[in-house]
Amino acid sequence: MIGKNDIEDNNFMDIPINKEDLPYEEEILRNPYSVKHWQRYIDHLKSTKSSNLNVVYERALKELPGSYKIWYNYLRQRVSQLKGRCITDPLYEDVNNAFERALVFMHKMPRIWMDYCTSMTEQCYITRSRQVFDRALRALPITQHHRIWPLYIDFLKKHNVYETAVRVFRRYLKLAPEDTEEYIEYLISVGRLDEAAVKLAQIVNQDDFVSKHGKSNHQLWNELCDLISKNPSKIKSLNVDAIIRGGLRRYTDQLGPLWNSLADYYVRSGLFERARDIYEEAIQTVTTVRDFTQVFDAYAQFEELSLSKRMEEAANNPNPTEEDDIELELRLARFEHLMERRLLLLNSVLLRQNPHNVQEWHKRVMLYEGQPHEIINTYTEAVQTVQPQLAVGKLHTLWVAFAKFYEENGQIPDARVVLEKATHVPYTKVDDLASVWCEWAEMEIRHGNCKEALKLMHRATAMPSRKVAYHDETETVQMRLYKSLKVWSMYADLEESFGTFKTCKAVYDKIIDLKIATPQIIINYGLFLEENNYFEEAFRAYEKGIALFKWPNVYDIWNTYLTKFLKRYGGTKVERTRDLFEQCLEYCPPKYAKALYLLYAKLEEDHGLARHAMSVYERATSAVLPEQRFEMFNIYIKKAADIYGVPKTRQIYEKAIEVLNEENTREMCLRFAEMETKLGEVDRARAIYAHCSQICDPRVTSNFWQVWKEFEIRHGNEDTMREMLRIKRSVQAMYNTQVNMMSAQMLNTASNPPSEQQTDAMRLLDSKASSGADAATPVTSKEGIQFVRGVTVGGEKSEARVVNPDVIDFDAGDLDMDTDGENENDEAEVDEDIPVEKQAIPSKVFGSLKTKEDEGIDN
Question: What pLDDT, in 10s, does the model give residues 465-480?
């Protein structure tokens, strides 16, 4: 190692040179100004870890003092040699001297300054380090200062030199104002809160300030409020009250926290009464439930802590005075009063949100229960505040409730005054005004002033100076009230109860003339006239109502009218009654036709002709809804059987089977066949079964086939049973064909080669169809009936024939058959390949099987 004195005396030649260094020395002698040769020599010494390394660096710098590369490497070498040494080691001064000598030539190189400043910082020389930093800032251009300032700031933060640091920070912020937040954090960390608050207020007021930490202006404002509210004794340069109130005007969505910050500032300042005023002001001004909840909770906590503190003081005081007890009771009463006002204060918040909310005004009145003066003030304020066009809810309920409050307290004149004012309010709907008039009349009735109630209704329904349309929104509701059905209905009820017949009739007539009547009004009018024995007047009233309304609204009027008319003139004015029914049924929808047709038929049964009654029933079967036709046909058949006898119902059954749906048709066919069986018409019954079988899938309607089978067992023979089974197979094949065709179509659309699938489906169909017709193999039918062949009288066996699996073994006593056992095969055999619908079963089989008895009845 070489020292300062060696360098100054230039005693480099006194240092011994190794043999390995001689070639490099020779090159240096030949090229003393070549950086490359000097660097090659230095690298050689580094690899050999020679002690002459510093000497060679000094020799090179003496020859080349302006070489940044050599200076930089030399300084790094000298700094690395300081590792592990105490900062009091003299070698540190040698290194500092080397930096100073380097800066004579390298004072524009920021890297040299940075390394020098870092070295001085590690040596903990505060003043010398600060001077070096300042020299670096003066020497370097301003474009290079950003490389020095971070080191300078880190140096200041390491040492408790607050005043120096503050002054340096102020210089730094002139260059980089965006780092103000870092300065504020430092001030807060060292306890200089006043200056920190001032700086924070400055950046909050700068609209163009962009936080390096990504904080919004709102977040910075909250930090400022927290800082100034929690440290009132340390912040003297700011007006805390004005700042927070400015935030209240600026950030209306954060009123709760800001109010709490302002109150907290006064609490920490010891101004408890001022803090209480702030809390009261806050809960009286916030407009959201969230802000109210935050402020109220903080207020309650403040009062509770104040009470607890006072109780602790009282407990620790062995000799409490009367003033102490009064103070304790005062704080307790104050806390209880606050908790009792919570619901009322919350209601005030909701009313500040929307002062036109009628329901909230009603809730406010309920909160003042037991305080009549407060209730009156609340109602008065409500009716003055709520505007009809902006009201949320029904405004008239406030006026009505206000009047009822006076009524309940026996102040009827005051209630009348309130209702009188309520009738002049410009409501948005006529129904609201009508409700006020009705409530007023009901109040008069409750107190026995019936005549006064009638006068009120007369006033309410008085015609205006000019006629206006009821739905004309440009006109006031007072001008349109004369067409309010609600008022007229109550007027009519009052006239019925307390008026005369003429006045009540005049009211009903006026309702009809104004064309505001409803079917119920017409019915009520008719009942009123009927009660007073004005039957014809009642009927005329019904007719007026019928002229006013159309179907289906007129149904109730027609029903009442016809019922009353039948009751009054049922047997004396049949023709007039018929005309009424015909007029009613002319445009009657199917939905309402059933009851009217039954009423019409009842009239004909009781006072007319049976033929007319049957005609009405027949018309009814086609006039009612499709789902009601089955029931209507049942009634028709029952009435026909009662009047003409059972045979006459055949035509009705035929018509029913033609028009009803499949399910009802099956039921009707079974009943029809049962009737024919009871009459002894077995062939007709069998034809009905055959006809119905076309809509009876054996897989679904097994009940039908079971009934037919039982019928054949009781009344048929082998041929008829075989025919029934053949029809059953044919019908089943028909339904299978439909299902298989649909399956084939689905498979056809699902795959590319449709021909093979269609072929498979047809083969499956053929196999099913041929399985039942194959007579070569004896089988037992699904019905469990075994078919066998008969034998001849002489006991000889018949010729060898194909065994028919459908042969039935009947007992001789069960059926009426030939005793010889022979069957006419030519007549009995039926071509099973012919579909049922192409055989001798007519679509309307019933006409071809009429008996003489039927013909006599028809004639």
Answer: 878 888 777 788 888 8
